[in-house]
Structure to design on (1074 residues):
């Protein structure tokens, strides 16, 4: 049973999408209920995963491996560990909530729900796949639904946004494809009868120099790391590959924005943790400083850009760029001392954990913020920050939820955003004091734009924008979504260990493995130099 | 040996071996006869021509499948027949099955879309089957003569088929352009063939490499005038093949011919003649290099392989970029066809490069032929996928044309609301053409690019081919999406013709053709295995 659980999680939404074909095209309400039911079932299945998950075990659990194209060494290989489990939970939760938020969709409901469910399959597949080929397939599977979800149900500039999203992601995909072939063929040695493989675990072992006979050379690791990093940075998104994000977020319908911000961006971070880092530890160390700098620039640029926005949704989109910068900084604070040994390894572990936590926290808070924007947009049909004001008096409950979720994004202690940001900043201090100062100042900028937004939207004497008559209280469905998100924001903020305990063991193991991998790679470099000197 | 003995030998060989090996072609020929005779006696009023065609092709397909199975079991050994004119091996039979299956699918499409009416039926199907025989001969050619005969037998009926819509000026114009280009290319190729045959004293493909060795001796570089003449001749043969494959710079006919021809014919030409020409190209390239394992790696052929890679690169890029400005769906698909020919040529190029790896690259002979077989495996896989995705796209164009009388992209606005099934299938076909997983097109591209990646180990310039090829995926995205955008994102304008293709036979046909693109993920292994066996047979 447990072998089938992961497969069931991935393909429940697909089956749900196929069943949707049988519905009458005009039975919108029942189709939406069915969609919600399917996402809820998926969520419950992921909870089963959580129940049987052994937090002390850093290795892959619930592993399945079935030969798919054995002739090419491709397997249908799934597994979950401490790094993927929280993200799987996040995905199924956000998908369920976004499905609840989809009641505002009235156009071509059947197509919308089918694409939504296929998207969920793609996302879950990415987090659960342990075969590079399979991972790539799931990664690209998401393109098609996303293009149409933005392109058909989006805002006025939907076509532009959709194609931009598609082009950016496809470029990233092509780079990943090249890296994938490099790893695949690099993992084989026909002379010794070592077959090529797509197995990410085995590739990681090879990358760490643990497999006798084959190894990824430091040069190759560096090239592959750059390719993979660009591929994942586009998704993350970090500067300078972020420009698709504001457009896609702004044009996408609210539920899709929630998914984009809540889940899709995490794939970039997950890809770095699952593939780029373990497969090329040398490359990771080689590029660590660049990564931190890119992260810091993203934090600051995103924050400043957010401050300059007048479109409510665009502001939230740029805040995502800023927040995901923390993820990058946290992951990459890997210092190698003069003696070639990792300095302050605990800080790095802390940074990795914090990066992971930041992804989860941002998944909750940004989905919440997009939802909050969506609620008011559904009523007044505009997002111009300068035309809001006084909503606190008109919609007190809404303002309460909004305050909670925005403060979670701001990083108020006791809410989910705080933990990630503070630990990233702390670990960055060990890495580079100068950069840490910039990271910390990002927190202030964040506070600046969020408080200013709160002021412009909720405070003030009265609402002067268009459609004041349409402002109504949140309905029950909206209250449920907002309170669930707020609940998790508080839960993660107050008991961060709920997540740290899940990921801790795996993260520790990843760090240890990369450390070893780097030492091995350096060893080979030194060996080559010595032989050349002789 | 007296003449009589020789004659008896030929007769007995023909009767015992050759005739049965040539079975599928003979069955198709017989079908043509039946079609023509039936019309002569007016029987076609009762037995419609397409039934005759379908039944004939199915029998031939059954025969060919049986041949394939027997070949696998070793009941029929591979080998040449008709005194060395034709070759019977895995590739021949594979392509026969491929072509016959495709002819059946095209025939069904023409029945559904009604392009040849009852009156024209026998003519159309005669031409269709005639060119099919030509293609099957191309797939099995073992002699320069048969190479030429095959290409011409394919081309001449194709010219007529392109001009089959007799009332349309565009159609006649397209046919004329096709004929002029085709005749030119054929002339150049014939000149090349005569040069090769004259210099080497033989036209048999398996003897060519050996004779080239005798002729040029150790002087296998461009210093020797013999080598230069020979290279010129080889280039000329490539011109003829490039014309069939619509490679840049011999692609000019393709968009015009496709635009003028009916979508059914365009779909037929885009797949079938490509497959046959690739079969021929593989054979010709292998013939130049001689028996596998025996062939000394030659810098000349390495150069030739890289040259093919560059042509492939330019073709793919040109096809993809030129497609941007198209407003007619068939023209757009024509440029897409050109681009895909480029991708597929990359596999042949990497085969040449891998087989001619210099000693320094450190490949063992076994590894070399293994890798070369993988290239061909990728190409064959790609061809099979390409059959479904291109036929699907053209079939949808044809069926939509029957409803809205237009093939302009702008006329497709908002069709998705009116005919969701066709548009969903179009979506699958086009995404497969882009190469987005899980559509089968991705797997084809993956296998081809994997072999190009291997070839980068031999020569650095293959990196260029590889990277440009990969980037082309991104180039191609835009124009395919443009069609989908028009179908899905735009609103149907007021007063536009409404269209409704429910789940009638037309809808089911399209579903049947596109379904393999999705279902192939379940049986990728079986298809790669088959392609593998066929490809490996070439390098035994």
């Amino acid at each position: 049973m447990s072998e089938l659980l992961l497969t069931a999680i991935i393909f429940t939404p697909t089956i749900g999408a196929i069943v949707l074909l049988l519905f009458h095209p005009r039975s919108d309400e029942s189709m939406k209920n069915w969609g919600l039911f399917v996402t809820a079932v998926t969520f419950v299945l992921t909870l089963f995963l959580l129940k049987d998950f052994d937090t002390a075990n850093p290795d892959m659990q619930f592993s399945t491996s079935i030969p798919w194209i054995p002739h090419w060494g491709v397997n249908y290989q799934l597994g979950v560990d401490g790094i993927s489990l929280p993200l799987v939970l996040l995905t199924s939760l956000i998908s369920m909530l976004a499905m609840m938020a989809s009641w505002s969709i009235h156009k071509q409901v059947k197509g919308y729900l089918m694409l939504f469910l296929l998207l969920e399959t793609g996302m879950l597949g990415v987090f659960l796949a342990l075969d590079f080929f399979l991972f790539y397939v799931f990664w690209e599977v998401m393109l098609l639904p996303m293009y149409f979800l933005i392109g058909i149900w989006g805002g006025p500039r939907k076509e532009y946004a959709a194609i931009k999203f598609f082009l950016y992601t496809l470029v990233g995909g092509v780079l990943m494809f090249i890296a994938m072939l490099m790893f695949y063929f690099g993992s084989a040695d026909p002379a010794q009868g070592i077959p090529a493989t797509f197995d990410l675990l085995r590739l990681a072992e090879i990358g760490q120099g643990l497999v006798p006979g084959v190894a990824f050379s430091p040069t190759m690791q560096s090239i592959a790391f750059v390719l993979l990093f660009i591929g994942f940075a586009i998704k993350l998104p970090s500067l300078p590959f972020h420009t698709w994000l504001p457009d896609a977020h702004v044009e996408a319908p609210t539920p899709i924005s929630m998914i984009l911000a809540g889940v899709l961006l995490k794939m970039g971070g997950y890809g770095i943790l699952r593939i780029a880092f373990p497969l090329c530890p040398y490359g990771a160390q080689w590029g660590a400083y660049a990564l931190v700098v890119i992260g810091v620039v993203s934090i600051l640029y995103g924050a400043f850009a957010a401050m300059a926005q007048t479109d409510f949704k665009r502001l939230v989109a740029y805040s995502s760029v800023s927040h995901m910068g923390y993820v990058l900084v946290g992951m990459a604070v890997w210092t190698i001392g003069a003696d070639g040994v990792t300095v302050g390894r605990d800080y790095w572990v802390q940074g990795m954990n914090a990066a992971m936590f930041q992804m989860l926290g941002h998944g909750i808070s940004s989905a919440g913020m997009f939802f909050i924007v969506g609620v008011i947009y559904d009523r007044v049909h505009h997002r111009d920050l300068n035309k809001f004001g006084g909503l606190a008096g008109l919609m007190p409950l809404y303002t309460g939820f909004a305050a909670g979720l925005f403060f979670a994004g701001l990083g108020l202690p006791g809410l989910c955003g705080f933990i990630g940001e503070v630990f990233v900043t702390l670990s960055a201090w060990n890495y580079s004091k100068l950069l840490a100062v910039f990271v910390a100042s990002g927190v202030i900028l964040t506070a600046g734009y969020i408080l200013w937004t709160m002021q412009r939207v909720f405070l003030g004497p009265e609402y002067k924008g268009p459609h004041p008559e349409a402002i109504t209280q949140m309905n029950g469905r909206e209250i449920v979504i907002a309170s669930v998100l707020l609940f998790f924001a508080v839960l993660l903020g107050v008991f961060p260990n709920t997540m740290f305990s899940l990921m801790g063991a795996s993260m520790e193991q990843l760090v240890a493995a990369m450390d070893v991998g780097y030492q091995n790679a350096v060893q080979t470099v030194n060996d080559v130099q010595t032989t050349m000197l002789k | 040996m007296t003449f009589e003995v020789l004659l008896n030998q030929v007769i007995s060989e023909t009767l015992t071996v050759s005739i049965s090996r040539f079975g599928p072609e003979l069955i198709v020929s017989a079908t043509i006869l039946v079609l023509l005779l039936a019309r002569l006696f007016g029987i076609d009023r009762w037995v419609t021509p397409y039934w005759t065609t379908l039944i004939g092709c199915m029998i031939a397909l059954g025969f060919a499948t049986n041949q394939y199975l027997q070949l696998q079991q070793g009941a029929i050994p591979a080998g040449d027949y008709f005194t060395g004119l034709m070759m019977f091996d895995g590739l021949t039979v594979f392509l026969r099955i491929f072509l016959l299956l495709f002819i059946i699918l095209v025939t069904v499409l023409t029945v559904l879309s009604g392009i040849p009416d009852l009156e024209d039926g026998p003519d159309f199907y005669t031409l269709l089957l005639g060119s099919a025989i030509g293609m099957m001969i191309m797939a099995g050619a073992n002699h320069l003569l048969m190479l030429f005969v095959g290409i011409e037998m394919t081309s001449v009926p194709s010219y007529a088929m392109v001009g089959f819509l007799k009332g349309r000026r565009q159609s006649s114009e397209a046919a004329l352009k096709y004929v002029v280009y085709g005749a030119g290319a054929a002339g150049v190729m014939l000149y090349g063939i005569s040069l090769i045959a004259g210099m080497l004293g033989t036209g048999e493909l398996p003897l060519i490499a050996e004779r080239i060795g005798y002729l040029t001796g150790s002087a296998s570089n461009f210093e020797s005038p013999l080598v230069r003449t020979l290279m010129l001749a080889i280039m000329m043969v490539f011109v003829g093949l490039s014309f069939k494959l619509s490679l840049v710079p011999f692609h000019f006919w393709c968009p015009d011919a496709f635009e003028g021809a009916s979508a059914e014919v365009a779909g037929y030409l885009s797949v079938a003649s490509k497959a046959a020409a690739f079969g021929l190209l593989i054979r010709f390239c292998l013939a130049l290099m001689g028996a596998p394992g025996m062939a000394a790696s030659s810098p000349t052929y390495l150069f030739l392989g890289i040259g093919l890679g560059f042509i492939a690169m330019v073709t793919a890029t040109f096809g993809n970029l030129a497609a941007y400005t198209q407003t007619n769906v068939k023209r757009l698909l024509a440029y897409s066809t050109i681009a895909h020919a480029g991708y597929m040529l990359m596999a042949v190029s990497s085969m040449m490069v891998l087989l001619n790896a210099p000693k320094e690259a450190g490949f063992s002979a076994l590894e070399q032929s293994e890798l070369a077989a993988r290239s061909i495996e990728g190409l064959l896989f790609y061809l099979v996928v390409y059959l479904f995705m291109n036929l699907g796209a053209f079939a949808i164009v044809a069926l939509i044309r029957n409803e809205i009388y237009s093939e302009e992209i702008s006329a497709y606005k908002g069709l998705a609301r009116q005919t969701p099934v066709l548009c969903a299938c179009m979506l699958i076909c086009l995404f497969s053409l882009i190469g987005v997983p899980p559509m089968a097109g991705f797997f084809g591209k993956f296998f081809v690019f994997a072999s190009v990646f291997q070839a980068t180990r031999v020569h650095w310039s293959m990196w260029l081919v590889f990277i440009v090829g990969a980037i082309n995926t991104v180039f191609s995205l835009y124009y395919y999406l443009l069609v989908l955008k028009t179908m899905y994102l735009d609103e149907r304008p007021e007063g536009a013709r409404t269209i409704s293709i429910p789940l009638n036979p037309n809808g089911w046909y399209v579903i049947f053709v596109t379904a393999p693109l999705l279902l192939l993920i379940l049986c990728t292994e079986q298809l790669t295995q088959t392609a593998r066996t066929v490809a490996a047979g070439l390098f035994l």
User: Anything to note?
Assistant: The mean pLDDT of chain B is 88. Chain B touches chain A at residues 364, 367, 370, 417, 420, 427, 431, 436-438, 442, 446-447, 449-450, 453-454, 466-467, 470-471, 473-474, 477-478, 481, 485, 488-489, 524-525, 528-529, 532 (CB under 8 Å).
